[in-house]
Amino acid sequence: KVDLNSMREAMGVMQHHDAITGTEKQVVAEDYARMLHLGIVECDIITNTAFNKLFTNNHLEDTNPAPQVNLDSCMLLNISQCEVSEKSSNFVVTVYNPLSHPVSLYIRVPVPGQTYSVKDPNNKDVVSQLIPIPTSVLNIPGRFSSATSELVFRAVSLPPLGYRSYYVTGSKKKSTAQESTTEE
Amino acid sequence: GELITLQNNGNKVQLTVSTGEVQLFLDDKKDLPLHQNFYYYTGFTGDNRQFFNRSSGAYIFRPKQKTPITIAPKPVSEVYKGPVVEEIHQVFSDWMSQVIRVYKEENHVELEWLVGPIPVEDNEGKEVISKFSIELETNGTFYTDSNGRELLERKRNFRSTWEVNISEPVSANYYPVTSRILIRDTTKNVEVAVLTDRAQGGSSLGDGEIELMLHRRLIHDDAFGVEEALNETAFGKGLVARGKHYVIGGTIPPVGASPSLAALERDLAQRKLLSPWTFLSPADDFTFKQWA
Fold first, then answer.
1. Kind of pairing, strands A116-119 and A125-126?
2. Could you give the strand order of the β-sheet that contains A181-183, starting from the edge strand earlier in sequence?
3. Partner residue opposite A71 with nearest CB, options B226, B281, B291
4. pLDDT tens per residue, chain A (184 residues)?
5. Does residue B97 contact residue A134 with C-beta atoms inside 8 Å?
6. CB within 8 A of B257, min separation 6: which ones?
7. Which residues pair with A20 in a beta bridge?
8. Residue B186 phi/psi, 5° resolution?
9. What element of type H or E holds B10?
């Protein structure tokens, strides 16, 4: 509960409309951003603990307990930047559905490589596609990223209040992206 | 005259290669194209000595023009097609671009806009909008939501509880859009809704039109208390804003039909505004087999 306090405090301050509409001094806007960032980082401790609890529950009958997994929420996805997918050849994408009914969702992950494959836990290939990140995004001031494309795939039927994970491998196999047509 | 067509469940997006013009057909059975482009209003500059002479600023939207200025009539476009998604990448200027996305299994069209840094070297503050237009008779009426709950009817140049004399026809018709804005033509039986990923200002200043404010950069304070112009910078340059609009629409089904447009809009709003959380974990230390 202590780990939630920073976010609680930030959200308490954020109740005022000045916090989000630009009708505050710039230094105040920047201070809100700082407070929110600290709050979100501290909340990561809770989400990590909660997810690892979920993963462990799924392995109760196994003789080998599930290893602790470090989950990164990639807060710079809004500028198509993510440290995990850029630095790791292989990575796991975990999608949690906070709704009380199943939903499907298209996932977009910024990547630096040319070919990737996506698998679900049942070793089934998930259809994916690489799309170049527009130059205007690559040139956003303050974007420090090696990602030049986004890997897109569909997470189908995420269970209510549950999760699905996908294993992404950078591979040498020709991807669907190379089969995509590009016309100008 | 060559056309490139992107298509998903009930929607069609057509790009005319020679002109760069894009048309959205939200109901592929009806020949009713929806046009979209980006414009900007220049902010009024006043001396702030009295109310009618206040500058456009953080608190008030007070454009100089009644008709916004087009950023670029003909964007440069690139098309990407694949098994999951089809996209048109449009560049309108060095500070305005957009990606139009048609996901194969979805029933809406996604428009991801990117604005900034808005140039102000000409000493003009600018307020950038995205405007949608379609040939519909909407009788000056449009709908915006109230904190993501019920839709409220808005009538152009009208207030329900007093006789209003509108002297600023653009800003006086702007309303908060928390998650969606829509127009309806009850004769043609067609509805068009635009869902936002954040609270924005929006209006319908002409029949069959929807406009949404995306980003503002102003160089004068409006004297309502901030004492700073709305001129934010990061890394020494004006801010860049990136966001999404989801366009959904088509024929309004008869009462009782399932799924109705309203139901589709609500489902889309839930999926986008309460979107699943995505987490990434490095997996270089274990194989797929170990993970599975």
1. antiparallel
2. A181-183, B76-81, B85-93, B96-103, B109-115, B241-251, B190-196, B180-185, B141-145, B151-155
3. B281
4. 788 999 999 888 877 777 777 788 888 888 888 999 999 889 988 888 888 888 776 655 556 656 677 888 898 999 999 999 999 999 999 999 989 999 999 999 999 999 999 999 899 999 999 999 999 999 999 899 999 999 999 999 999 999 999 999 996 444 444 444 444 3
5. yes
6. none
7. none
8. -75, -20
9. none
B122-180 confidence digits (pLDDT tens): 999 999 999 999 999 999 999 998 776 788 999 999 999 999 999 999 999 999 999 99
Cα four-point dihedral sign B254, B256, B259, B262: positive
Do residue B284 and residue A97 have CB atoms under 8 angstroms apart?
A: no
A183 touches chain B (CB under 8 A): yes
- Chain A residue with CA closest to B240: the answer is A140
Distance CA B6, CA B23 (A): 10
Q: Do A91 and B280 touch (CB under 8 A)?
A: yes
pLDDT value, residue A26: 86
Give the number of other Cβ atoms within 10 Å of residue A84's Cβ: 20
Mean pLDDT per 10-residue section of chain B, whose length is 292 residues: 86 89 83 93 89 87 95 92 95 96 92 96 96 95 84 94 94 94 91 92 96 96 90 91 93 68 82 87 88 82
Interface of B with A in 61-90 (CB under 8 A): 77-85, 87, 89
Quote the minimal CA–CA distance from A117 to chain B in Å: 12
The answer to whether the Cβ–Cβ distance between B235 and A142 falls below 8 Å is: yes
Residue B56 is classified by DSSP as: P
Is residue A69 within 8 A of residue A26, CB to CB? The reply is: no
Q: Check CB contact of A140 with chain B, cutoff 8 Å.
A: yes
pLDDT at B204: 97
Prediction ipTM score? 0.90
Give A126 to chain B, closest Cα distance, Å: 10
Distance in Å, alpha carbon of B136 to nearest chain A alpha carbon: 32
